[in-house]
Design brief:
- The protein has about 130 residues and is mainly α.
- It has a single domain, classed as Nucleotidyltransferase, domain 5, CATH 3.30.420.
- Helices cover about 50% and strands about 5% of the residues.
- The protein has a two-stranded parallel ribbon with strand order 1-2.
- Helix 1 runs parallel beside helix 2.
- It is globular.
Length: about 130
Amino acid sequence: MLGLLLVAVVTPASVQDRDGAVPVLRQGHREYPSLTKVWVDGAYTGAVIADLRTDTSLDIEVVKRTDDVKGFKVVPKRWIGERTNGWLGKFRILNKEYERTIASSHADILHAMTCLMLRRLTVPAEDRKERR
């Protein structure tokens, strides 16, 4: 709900999002047993996700946008993930793929989220708003 990163898995570009979600959700379920509900977008459907639901007993809810709405509309719960992607996008090292290994890319993501969390712990909210 806070948009903070719990699990990060880096995959090659040839891996579809739906297939890449499996190791993320398995690792999240393993590391955070209290995790019970996950909101995903419409791409995360199919047999792979159904099997994952059964194996982990996670409540995986697909949040879809309605087809009859034209233009931009905020989709409930999806904005949380998009907001987190926006926060991470402010880090230059994550804007382009500079790294040659998956391990270093993974470390860059964790480093960026650590910087975000440390800033929230050390700088009062009023001061953060003034810096924007």
